Sequence to fold (99 residues):
Amino acid sequence: MASMALPPWLQRLAATTNVRSSPTARFKTETYAFGSGGNWGGDIKDATIDKLNFLDVAKVIAGPLASQKYLPAKDPNNTKLLIMVYWGTTTVPPRYRMM
Fold:
């Protein structure tokens, strides 16, 4: 089966981002920097989340990013990707709240 050529706009996008041209193509290495958005808290108290800080959350996110060749930038000012990290519990609709 012959491979299809990518349209020019997608070729330009693939050249500047981590888009793969086919399922078997490898990701190219990209760098990122995290920004701390903060803990949003929430209506429900959950000690497993409430005790987390920015570095705890960033470490969890870094693993899956690395598996797709996203690596932390040595110099945050020289990266194209800023990932703002927010964490906390979600707001639960009133009918599902515990009394």
Observations:
- Residues 29-96 form one domain.
- The longest strand covers residues 30-41.
- The first helix runs from residue 8 to 16.
- The helical segments are 8-16, 47-50, 54-67.
